[in-house]
Description:
The chain is built from three helices and no strands. Helix content is 58%, strand content 0%.
Amino acid sequence: MLSDAELPLLPPPPATFRYNAAWIVLGEMHPPLTLFKHPMCADIIEAFLKCHSDHPVGKFFGECTDLKIKLDRCFRQEKVEKRKKNLEKSKKLRETLQAYRKETAYEGH
């Protein structure tokens, strides 16, 4: 581990530079929290929204952070499953298109 003296010196950020400390710690913001778009994560979304409504000020100080982390993990898992389904669907479509092309090419000769 580097000591403070060994760390590279960075110039100070410009005066117009603004950031939210939560973005640095937690990453990007979540997608829109609509239940019909995220059925796998519906219970976590409801708990997260309830936490935000129950703790209007505490949400800015980490009151709902564990739910946010669970929500991010759920969204990632949901994305993985969607990718698998889309891949399977595209393989089936490719097979049917290839079969159709062979059929039409054979009929053309």
